[in-house]
Amino acid sequence: MPNIRPGWMPKQSIYIRIAAIEFLRVGHTGHRGQAYLDMFFEEWLAAHGIPPVPEGSNLDDVLNLYKARLVSTIRWHAFAGSGKLDVLPATRIRSLKSRLKRDLFFLWDSPPQGFIKVRKPSSATGS
User: Fold this and answer.
1) Residue 8 CB contacts under 8 Å (≥ 6 apart), including other chains
2) More confident residue, 3 or 47
3) Count of domains observed in the chain
4) Which domain of life is it from (predicted)?
């Protein structure tokens, strides 16, 4: 079963995983990860809209909180729930990609290449 954040659509959870992979890739190539996160937040707002603003709240405060939650979710996926990587970035990216393939398989019911392994029957010969 795919890991979907409560209250989110499956497509949003998939998009977050892709963002975590891209965040690690951008950081691994020596570019600024924060610039990518800022750009991703702008794309997210364009795709999913501005969250509702509760009465008596300021729009800027709501957007800052929303961005902080979104960025922390991306970082949580990228760093496997800890504050830093315990493995090489390329290893973590490979792990995220394989989980993404598994989630896509369950959501859209088409197995990725190499997902299903067929066991060869053992040949029993009597001597």
Assistant:
1) none
2) 47
3) 1
4) Eukaryota
